[in-house]
Amino acid sequence: MRYLFLSFVFLSQSLAQTPVPVHDKEYICGTGIASDPELLQQAWENTRRADPGILAAMQRYALQKSAQPLRIGTEEVFWVYNFKDNRFDTVRAELKAIGTMSYVWVALGELSNGHVTQTEVDAILSALENRTPPTSQDTTKGILPLERRFFGNPPNINSSFIRGAGDGRTHFLIYDIIDGFSGSGGFVAGYFHSKDQVNTSSSNRRDMLYIDATPGIFFNNTRDPNRPLNVLAHEFQHLIHWNYDTGESTFINEGLSELAELLCGYGLRSPERYLKNTNVSLLGWSQTTDDRVLADYSRAALFTYYLWDQFGEVFVRNLTQNPESGALGFDSALLLSGYSGNLVSTVKNFQIANYVMDRSVGQSYGYGIPLQRQPRPKVHLDTFGPTSSGSRTNILSLGAEYLRFRVMDTVRAMLTITSGIGDIQVIRASSGGTTVSSVPAGLQYESSFVGSPISEAVFVVHNTRTTGNLAYTHQTTGALKSGVALELAHDDGRTQRAPNTLFRPNDTLSVAFDGVSNAKIDSVAMWFQTTGSARLMVRDWNTAYDLSTQPLGGLGGAARISSPIPFTVTDTSFLRTVVDLRQRNISASNDFLVQVLYGAGAPNPLMRRDSGQSAVRSFLFLSSQPTAGRLMYESTGDFYVRVYLGYSDQSTIPPPSSGALVLQQSYPNPLYMRGSTSTALLEYSVPIDGNVRLVVYDLLGRPVRVLLDRFLFAGFYSIEWDGRDAGGGLVPSGVYLYRLESGGDAQTRKLILVR
User: Fold this and answer.
1) In sequence order, what are the residues at sequence separation of 6 or more whose Cβ sits closer than 8 angstroms to the Cβ of residue 581?
2) In the prediction, which pLDDT does 244 show?
């Protein structure tokens, strides 16, 4: 089988402001384009018809090539693939750098027009051989030695295609890849073509990778040698993998290339595209260059990182070098690495870990960002209370679906698999912690949350077959936990970045929230940095909207209230601006947007925003841009907007049954700090709407950390303390007091912290 591995990058025209279009720099390695031998054969026929003289010219050139060692300044002519016309072209290039493991060639045209200079060549050579970013596995090594350590060796062919007989160096050709790029949208950033490893007419007879010069390095009149480095890391893994398994499945091969980028310090692709739809054939791969294949990369990156986290370096190397492909090669690599289980059991654990992300149940998995900021899979069904029923017929092979039930005292569930083969598990979260257990299909599962302010049961339905769909039904009943508001938030309540100052009259700020069945919107709370006036609107969220379809809008759908609600910001304290919606009966059952519409006073009031999320749900609609017209952007950080939901049959949120302010004992207590992720859970109930203040003190009565100081509706709540003071420093071991105050009432409890 012949392979062509490509890297596409989506790059939009950059503006001088903060927001960045969501598709900016999101590349695709288009394996499927040339996995089909018929496509390559057609490309060769297109070349013969379009320019028959090029074949004879290249044959004469091959006879004239010198057999002397390569030197700086040597010029050669190379076959290159033309993606726009599906044919082969030729490019003359000069050898500009030689390392111990690499040659770097640059097309003469890119040298003459100044798009690539020796400065960029030297920087790329250094990244290839000598150094990688601070987040890499070893900053003192370049991409090539790092990947040889983790994955194995490239083929190292000579001109006679004998593996292992070359000089040990990989050739990198920088040229303007012909792909139809016209200034915005997608472009091919680089590729590996297996034709160079086998005796074909268009072979360059060496280990070779191709890197785009324009706009890959040169864009908007600026040269950036760092832009293609993640692509170099990605493509080099493909070259290595071809050496061991020329028929590897696209999913595993691409996933390992995504991991290569992470290990070399260039980050992990966002998991958001996969997590928003986990009912996909896990090993499947789209043959297109649209949003579906971007979701494939998101899934492959996340799954392969999970493998690295769980099984480590030895397994990754065994998986790369195993000559067997797909599931068979995966199971063989597990066995060879000393692990039990197989692909199916690993996928089930992966699907649970994506939701749990809790080290207390044996999960160390977590994308390299704080646990509280990690995105979770989008659930198929999210319900306020325990009551629901339904059926599904299309859970795809090795796919999963999540059903979440919240705000309940008891839940009784019956899930039955009606066709196919699968497993069902339940993730149960309460004030006592998080547990995962199996649920026998066709038998009733029951769980109680009485006395616990935290109540959540997530049923995970796994299709455990590598082919074929699964169907199931579910029926749940139980008792609702009365007097509790459900808070929806994307921020962590602590970190923030500078507010966005771009807003002008008629601009709109949108924050998207997933719908919750049986719920209505009671209120919206916001945190502003400056005072001013604006209007609040609630609309349907068009989850299918693609931000790359600029400049048209379309993120927001039908209105859920008759007209925007004016509000005024007078208090810039944390979440002090509250818009009460309890009398408007706004359904929260489907995905929705909370929008802030700016008027004549823009850009005020400036809304604060969080920082560091992997999946951002905040957007800006700028009604006028001097150079680009009407534009929708994804925000760099979620805005501080929180939504409070009540049960849809209640006109108001009733107070807790106790009628009193209640502060529970912290859990765990004592709090044994085992690294920076250890936290104490503080749970409390508020009997009436009003301002609530929760502060941690030392035994001398000095405030250590203000955990909460804002308006809350009556209900049960919880918050975590990570053992740090107001400045972020670690507090010493000892006894601490935490005090809850609201409505003239107060309660205090002790917490023991041990380091």
Assistant:
1) 521, 522, 523, 524, 538, 561, 565
2) 96
Q: Is 619 in contact with 20 (CB distance < 8 Å)? A: no
486 neighbors 519 (Cβ within 8 angstroms): yes
Q: Can you give the pLDDT at residue 184?
A: 65
Residue 335: both structure tokens together: 């066995």
Q: Give the Cα separation of 21 and 11 in Å (integer).
A: 9
Cβ atoms of 234 and 266 within 8 Å: the answer is: no
pLDDT at site 552: 57
Q: What are the angstrom distances between the C-alpha of 143 and each of 37, 233, 263, 264, 266?
A: 30, 6, 9, 6, 10
Q: Are 514 and 379 in contact (CB under 8 A)?
A: yes
Least confident interval from 668-672, 682-686, 749-753: 668-672
Q: Inform me whether the pLDDT recorded for 622 exceeds 70.
A: yes
- Residue 147: its H or E element: helix 143-150
How far is residue 457 from each of residues 361, 408, 475, 486, 714, measured CA to CA in Å?
Answer: 15, 9, 14, 15, 23
The neighbour count for residue 5, using CB atoms within 10 Å, is: 28
Contact criterion met (CB below 8 Å) for 654 and 482: yes
Q: Return the structure tokens found at 474.
A: 């579910």
pLDDT at 360: 38
Q: In what order do the strands lie in the sheet with 455-463?
A: 381-384, 400-406, 455-463, 422-430, 433-438
16: number of Cβ within 10 Å: 5
| Predicted pLDDT of residue 332 | 97
Q: In the structure encoding, which two tokens stand for residue 206, read together?
A: 């060496």
Tokens of 14: 């950059």
Q: Of 535, 544, 471, which is closest to residue 506 (Cα–Cα)?
A: 535
Q: Where are the beta strands (DSSP E) in 407-469?
A: 408-419, 422-430, 433-438, 444-448, 455-463
- In which element (H, E) is residue 487 found? strand 486-488
Mean pLDDT within 530-548: 90
The predicted structure's pLDDT at residue 5: 47
Higher pLDDT, 557 or 50: 557
367: confidence class by pLDDT, cuts 50, 70, 90: very low
Least confident among 90-104, 189-203, 562-576: 189-203
Give φ, ψ of 730 to 5 degrees.
-75, 130
- Evaluate whether 721 touches 739 at the Cβ level (below 8 Å): no
Q: Could you give the C-alpha distances from 267 to 134, 367, 638, in angstroms and in order?
A: 11, 10, 21
Do 752 and 671 touch, CB atoms closer than 8 A?
Answer: yes
Q: Helices (DSSP H) in 193-342: which residue ranges?
A: 229-244, 250-263, 272-275, 291-321, 326-336
Q: Which residue has the higher pLDDT, 551 or 180?
A: 180
Task: Say if residues 102 and 172 touch (Cβ distance below 8 Å).
Answer: yes
Q: What is the DSSP string of 704-716?
A: EEEEEEEEE-SEE
Residue 435 tokens read as 């547990």
CA 307, distance to chain mean position in Å, is 16
Alpha-carbon span 477 to 469, nearest angstrom? 27
Q: How many residues are recorded in the chain?
A: 755
Neighbours of 671 (CB within 10 A): 22
The predicted pLDDT at position 371 comes to 40
C-alpha span between 406 and 382 (Å, rounded): 8
Running DSSP on this structure, what letter comes out for residue 607? B
CA distance 375 to 619: 17
Phi, psi of 120 (to 5 degrees): -70, -40
Q: Treating both helix axes as pointing N-terminal to C-terminal, what angle do 229-244 and 118-129 enclose, rounded to 10 degrees?
A: 50
The predicted pLDDT at position 31 comes to: 43
Amino acid 185: pLDDT? 63
- Which segments within 345-407 are labelled E, that is strand? 381-384, 388-395, 400-406
